[in-house]
Design a protein that fits this description.
Blueprint lengths: L2 H14 L5 H9 L4 E6 L14 E7 L3 H13 L4 E5 L12 E7 L8 H11 E12 L5 H17 L9 H7 L2 E10 L9 E9 L4
Parallel strand pairs: 1-2, 1-4, 2-3, 4-5
Antiparallel strand pairs: 5-7, 6-7
Helix pairs in contact: 1-3
Length: about 210
């Protein structure tokens, strides 16, 4: 990672992912979380304060030291214990069947191998555990998709590998989950190519 990715981009992402329209969405995706939760792409902690009281602990997975530093004040105010427990969502240092639930918000667009990260989440979730996700990805409208494909190379360069056109539902189901609820919509006050959102929950499939 270069200087921009390590030192500048976390501050850009903190602002971009902290908009007022995102707070209600974060509250929606966190609703229903229970027990021990693993959160990949913790970032600067914008979900802190949205976890319901049924959560007993959050194990944060965040590669950026700067992102974790920015999250410090938010983490310090949390009534729910939060610890930075891993750096790479593609290679989680947890035993099988560890967590009751998993949380991913605005993360599957950027993690280099999203399919692998989802398989890892499936592995560390207890049987029947749930994945809660809020992600931007491939738009439902062909015209918007064309713009996403055109802009992906630029987005990857300026946003740390982020892509507009990742097929979120396909990735989730391919990672060993059955989607139980999902809502597709465009985020308010965001251009459609960047604001095609999927908000939902999925249940970990039984391992064979």
């Amino acid at each position: 990672m270069g200087f921009y990715s390590r030192r500048i981009l976390p501050y850009v992402v903190n602002v971009a992912c902290g908009g007022s329209t995102m707070r209600p969405l974060r509250e929606r995706v966190c609703a229903g979380l229970v027990g021990e939760v693993v959160e990949i792409g913790f970032g600067s902690g914008h979900n802190v304060g949205c976890y319901p009281s049924t959560v007993t602990r959050v194990r944060a997975v965040e590669p950026s030291d700067v992102g974790w530093k920015i999250a410090g004040k938010r983490v310090a105010t949390s009534s729910i214990p939060i610890e930075r427990a891993a750096l790479d969502g593609q290679d989680l240092p947890f035993a099988d069947d560890t967590f009751d639930a998993a949380l991913s918000t605005y993360t599957l667009c950027t993690v280099p191998d999203a399919a692998r990260a989802l398989r890892e989440l499936r592995r560390v979730l207890k049987p029947g555990g749930s994945l809660h996700f809020l992600e931007h990805g491939l738009a439902p409208d062909p015209k918007v998709r064309r713009w996403q494909y055109r802009l992906d190379p630029i987005e990857r360069r300026i946003a740390g590998g982020c892509e507009f056109s990742r097929p979120i539902e396909e990735l989730v189901t391919g990672g060993g989950f059955t989607i139980t609820d999902v809502d597709h919509f465009y985020e308010e006050r965001a251009p459609k190519f960047a604001g095609a959102l999927s908000l939902g929950t999925a249940q970990a499939d039984p391992r064979t």
